Amino acid sequence: MKRLFYILILLYNFAIYAQGDGSLKSTYPTNYFQNPLDIPLLLSGTFGELRTNHFHAGIDFKTQQREGLNVFAAAGGYISRIKISHWGYGKAIYITHPNGYTSVYAHLQKFSKRIESYIKKKQYKKESFEIQVFPSSTELPISKNEIIALSGSTGGFVGPHLHFEIRDTKTEKPINPMLFGIQVSDSKKPRINTLIGYALDSASQINGIGIPMKLNLLNLTNGELLAVKINAFGKIGFGINAYDQLDGSYNKNGLYSLTMLVNGEKVHEFEASSFSFSESKYINLLIDYERFGNLKQRVQKCFIEPSNKLSLYTKTLSNGYIKIEDGLSYTVKIIAKDFKGNTQKVTIPILGKKDSIIVANTPTITPYRIDRTQFYKFQKNNVSVAFPKKTFYNDFYLDFDVNDSIVKVHTPTVPLNKKYTLTFDVSKYSEGQKEQLYIASINRKGNTKYETTVKKDSTFYTSIKKLGDFTLLTDNEQPKVLLKNFKDQQWMTHFKTLKVKISDDESGIQSYRGTIDGEWILLEYNVKNGILTYNFNDKKFTTAKHLLEVIVKDNVGNTRTIKAHFFRKK
Ligand SMILES: [Zn+2]
User: Fold this and answer.
1) Which residues have their alpha-adjacent CB atom under 5 A from ion ligand 1?
2) Which of 122, 180, 279, 368 is 20 to 30 Å from 357 by CA-CA measure?
3) What is the pLDDT of residue 237?
4) Segment 7-17 mean pLDDT
């Protein structure tokens, strides 16, 4: 505690000195929240990190590759929300504090006794493992340093760690927890891997090339990077792929800020300080989405696309676009910083030269031209796609085709602003076939995934926010259900839990329901291994012989029911 105090004092001073440079570092209380874990803090994820379709809204604390570490309330207040979901945050607690902030703790293994019994009552009442409740300010008061939960790995395919957030209670905007004085040691500077140059209109070019271009980098003796000198003309921009490593951790984390200078003048700056969840989708305009779709590499642009409404920019002149004139020389510097201020720089020398364009940025023309402001409906064979106005951010030629029952709706290289509708006419199928039919997406590896299929007579449709290949598939197999830690007719007096494993190879699990002697029981579902767990503490039995029934339904409605008897001493 003492050490933390000194660190907080240090940080407080730092916060004062950081004032006046446009940074938000000085506006938050740095001595209010304490660390939610009592182990040395190592991060596997930083705030604002670039993730799929969203920015990381908190920081991820490593938990020594294990579960069950004590999680402490970062400050006093009351639990204002508990959410349990199969995916996402898993088991999560939200604590509202009197100073106007809310702290969030996610992927928890289990809650403290008081919270656990509170939420179990609600789960039994709702007859659902997944639940969300908003307790009033008097129901679950929390004192600072109180153990609220054990760390875990709940919520989809995540390893053990604690996801921690601080939000503005009123606006619900997540704020970088480091701004509140959470201290982790980081002496390493960010690493810049890739530099891309962008010619941004039909008249502009870099080295005669009109399409995005990877630029060669040289390592300087001072550790900085120098791009090989380029000739350019017209409206251009730059982007980099970079990551930051913290001390004692191999995880590739996000940057705190990315700044671009042109001839010594700061023209553009991005800072991972706070954002609102509603703007998170614009991450697909911040990154080079086409490159991400093709190579899975995230290049963060130092310029702002016209539809990009992100608030994470602390400075921008001409939206980060650089206008290169014939005969003039330019020096562009891109500066990547982590929260501690460790810095990596790349310098890009540019000579303005109007070369003839060797490789032009000419789009592949298709019959399906999209003007982003218009509504479109395209049809081929038994398939139609309908795009509401502003489904896309940009105008382009859509690739749409139906071949051997595979529907191609472009490739996942164009970001979507909203959902569109993909509709199949299924009138050629019998009623029986229709029941087991569903719409599936096909990823690049050829794996198929159930997409929420709405069935209306002889048309099936899905509202979806991704492009790529789709098809109709049939699932005529029931889910599988196996007794995991016991056999039918077994005595289970000394067992703490009862476990059943469920799976479905085709459309996937839609729902499950368990009862003992006809009464609903809480089965905790771990999506990682398909195991449903019942805790014998939930119920007191008055007889010895019991009947367990588990009903599992897949996404097209195929249902499997298993029954097993077990015995427990009264
Ligand atoms: Zn996280």
Assistant:
1) 45, 60, 163
2) 368
3) 98
4) 43
